[in-house]
Amino acid sequence: MEPAAGRAPLAALNQAVPPPLPRTATKPPPGPLSFTQFHTGWMDKQEAAFKAWLNAVLQPTATSEESERLHGGLASRRLVARLRGLLWQLYSQDQELVSVMLKVEQRIDGGQLKLRDEELCMKSVKEAANARAVLASYHPLWLRLGMEVVTGQPVTADDAAVSAADLTAFVRERFMKDPQLGKQHFITSKAYWAVLARLVVKRFLLLAALLDRAVALPNLPGGAPLLFRAESKVKASAQVVTELLKSRLAGEGDVLRTLARLGYKLAYVQDPRRELSFEVANLATDLRDGLRLCKLAELLTGQQRLFDSTRFPSDRRPVRVANLQLALDQFARAGLPLRGVRTQQGKVVTLAAADLVDGDREMTLCLLWRLILHFQLPQLISLSAVRAEVELIRAKSAACGSGAACSDGLAASSGLDAASEAACESAHAAALLEWSQAVCAQYKLPVRSFGACFSDGSVCCLLVHYYLGNAYVTLRDVQMPQVQPAAGSGEVQQGRWLLMPTPGQLERARGNFALVQRVVELLGGIPAMVSAEDFAEHGHDEKGCILFTAFLCHRLLEISKEERAAMVIQRHWRNRRQNKPGTAREHLYKWIAAASVVQRAVRAWRLRRGLEQFAARRQRAVAAVMRLQAMWRARPVYRHYQQLRQAAIFIQAAYRGKMAQRRVFHQVVVPCMLEAGLRCKRELEASRFEGRMVRAATKMQALRRGSKLRRRFMQQRSAAIAIQAAVRSHRQRTCFLRQRSAAVRIQASWRRHLAQRQLRQAQAAATALQAAWRRWQAQQQYQRLRAAAVAVQAAWRAWQARLLLQQHKAAQRIQAAWRGYAARKGLEQQQVAAVHIQAAWRCFAARSAFLEQRRAAVVVQAAVRQAAARRRFVMSKQAAVRIQAAWRGFAVRHLLQRSQAATTIQSHLRGFLARQHLQQQHAAATTIQHAVRAFQERKQAAALAALKQQMTEMARLMQQYAARTAAALRIQAAYRGHQGRTVYRRLLAEQQEQLRRQQEREAAALAVIAPWARAFSDRVWFLRAQRAAPVLQAWWRREFARRQAAAVTIQAAVRCFLAQRQMQRSRRAALVLQTAWRGSHVRATHLHRKQLTDIRLRLAAAAANAANAPHRSLGNRTRAHLDALLGSKHPAAVIAALNGLALTTEAVLACGDIVVAGGGLPVLLGIVKSSSRSKEAADALRAALLCLSNICRSRQHGDTVFEAEGLLPSLGDHLQQQRDKEEVFMAVVGLWQRLVCGHPGRALSLARQPEVLAKLEGVSRLLTLKHTADQKYLVKLEQQKGSDRSARTATKALLTTTRQLRALHAVLAAVGAGPEPAQGGPREGGAGQPADLGKNTLVREVLRAQK
Question: Could you report the per-residue pLDDT of 1325-1335, keeping only the tens digit for each?
Fold first, then answer.
């Protein structure tokens, strides 16, 4: 059975069998194997397979020679096609690139960017060679594809392999020349060379921009090479343009800056780490540095820029461990378990970086196999695709016939048994095995596992033959294994591959694997990891077989998909060719008629929809206008209604009683409110549920209708496409006319788009011009104001300078006279002159102190006098207030006596007017209530909607107590209004009835008491007013006195505050003026005024430079020094970085936070903990200690440093080791003081560490002994010899020991373990030096210098 024999192959390639691919695995020598070699041979085979896989993944691109040799492979051709497609897409569809290149070409055509001496430059052989050398920096593949896209011409006619000579010839004949220009201009004319030069510059710039953008694309294929060759000196796109055009363009300095103004920017810079060779030659050594494993993690997990985080060079164990741990962490984040991993021997281990650095062979192989299962197999194999392929194979096998062979094949490929499925470690391996079973069942070859069934290579040959046919492998060349029936059953089983195969079996296996290796080489993309020797020597490795089968399955399914697509296209084309002419025309006319009907219906529907939308929009606009007009007309009416309503509410609120309010609230309002709230909540929840159901149903209906419409549209679209294809094939001229009309319309649309864009650009330009003009006017005004201010300042400074110059000249004359007098006196009078000078200085100091005290006394006296004056003013004001109060009381009493009569008359009149006004208000309230009730009845529906909205809002805010209380108060107010109005109507009726009866009784009584009523009422009112007048007068007097006292207090406080603020302002102004005057005077009269002026100018220039250069700020400098510390390996660079960090952290406390956040604290602690005694180590230790001391100024960082493991013992060791080096010792003691002094908790913690405390006390004792010895030695020197210069060195040593002891004693005192008095040490007092020393002149000089 040959299922693929009649199928068309992809290509007829050479049938010659090439020699086997070389293998680099270490093979044991031929002959009998030892016991150890027999049981560890699987490691050699796994290592060979995994090494081939790593080389295929990490080094997918071969060298130029290998690419030329393997260019005929399918994978290589597919990579070239994908890269060419990406470049063409950028060239034609990248709008940004197109717009930038159009601007650049306009500049080139305008002559702004042109070559210097165009004819000479283009004819020069040296210039052409230099240009070709710069272009040769690109990788040959990128250079070839880029030139093909730029020139529009292929390098070779048949897309074959290209050599370096072919590329050079293409650059010389096609890229830097153009045959079409020779037809338009004479070759010897200057116009030809000018046009050619502009064309070459355009091509160079376009090639550089195109390749720069292409390598930065996120969808770049995995096997794409780097842009520049590894041995090239050019590593950046900008460098290519600079090398090509910098010295060749006329009138251009910085070419890149000129191009950047046009938007032409090149950003690609090739990382040197990407140029490393990742080829694996030996797994035991090549994976230890971690670089290859990090690169593998970046490729398998898809984490971008992971390899850039590695540390290079990895020549030390900590660096290697860090790189390997980085890779393992990335694998763990991607889902790979690192704990509880089972090895080949069955042990459960944890994958760690230390084992990989040590070269643990078994752990390395275990990790690589886990990576293959977790990452590589899912990338190569899609479970759904493989299972669909298996179902397709079985379906074809079922449809091929009904013979016994077919039924046997189906039975053999029906699926995996329990044992085979359990043997597979993942679902992808099980899918691979099932696919192999389904394919080999077509050839009556059973496959049950990746074990002995794959041992002779026949399964791989059959897999290739099934998909590629006889073009690659023929069945007669495949050496099939011997298949024998099993004993006692009708099934067939494959013969076992013995541990020691026979010569015939070995020869058949070599033939099959030679066929497989030839196919692998021709297809490409499959690592050569199998050979006959691996399977012949005591079995084979199943893991390598699974990996090879996965790569083979991936490539065969890709080719199968392409082949099926080609067959579908061919079948459709043949069906088209077989149709008769008459039938095709008849079908064409039917399709045209159907398309016309569909188009007519669609146009009518779109017209109706447009009309409906227009009518709806117009109706909405009219309704909106009417609503606006109604709202505007109702505005004054509503305002009047609000005023009437407020008046009615005021009247109603005055009439309500407190008892009625309390009864209504407790008996009616609260129960009704609760019931209404619950009822509205239930209605709201029901309405929300119904709304959700309605929206869900509407959405489902819309989705269903949309699906139907899309299906109908796709059918109509396919029908229209078929019609258009037929019409184009039979009516070429009609198609051309339609295309021309469509092109005209497209051009018109495009020109309209260009015109609109130009209009927008013009508007933007006008806006920019206006902004620039306004900015220029503002700048001119600012310049004028600034010039005026500068002139005023210059005049003021000139006056001050002239004044100072006069004083300076007077002082010079005085000094000249004094110097002459002093010179005449001679040297013998210097002592007297010094005494006079000291007396004058003391007099000046005393006078200054007296003037300062006098000014202070004047200020104090002014304050005392001000307080006394304020007290006198307050007393005077209080007396005046009392006099005014007495006079006003007398006036009020007199006025009250005079106004009593008038008040009596006015009260009767006001009572009559009030009663009349009350009757009018009752009538108005009745009218308003009637109108409001009518309005509420007409707007009942709107009121219900508003009430429902309010209840909805109340339910949403029910959890917030304040909002719920506010809503309840509003509803209660409305209900109280309703109840109050009801009660008011009832009481009003009763009141009217009572009033009618009262009026009748009053009318009857009026006739009796009318003559006596007026006199009685007057007397009653008079008696009431007489009793109320003293009460009102007493209250008013108390209130007036209280207000007057409060006003006086407030005025006094305000005046005191204003006086104090004025005094403070005056004092600050005086201080500012005094400071300015003193500074000016000192600058003018100082002996080193020129140096000070230079210093101020340099400081101003430094401040301006710092403002113009943000990278020179302390924060950026700190980050730069930290990066240098973390990335540099040279001792000098590390020491320089540490010194820079010490300066920045000492200047600003925030720089310490930057160092800690950037990860510099562990590095500093590591330097402090190191025990090296070299000079570089001492310098680094001193700088690191200063950095830590500055960082510890922050309490949080100080606690972190103090609690660092092993730091305190290391500091104690440094005290013992570095006591002879003053700078390092003082830096260590300074860190101790920063950690312990002023921090009782840390001091107590240090006191609980006897080992560290013993080191500190021991160093203190040693320094005390040294101090005593130095002091004795110095005394001895002074006694023996009066001016021995060795005393200078001894004195310096004594002072150094004194400083060290005092600093260390401060630390011990903070801990509570100070030195004993008997131990001696430096005596306190004086300037820090021994009091009994200093008899020698040199000793005194040293002590004075140290002081």
Answer: 443 444 444 45
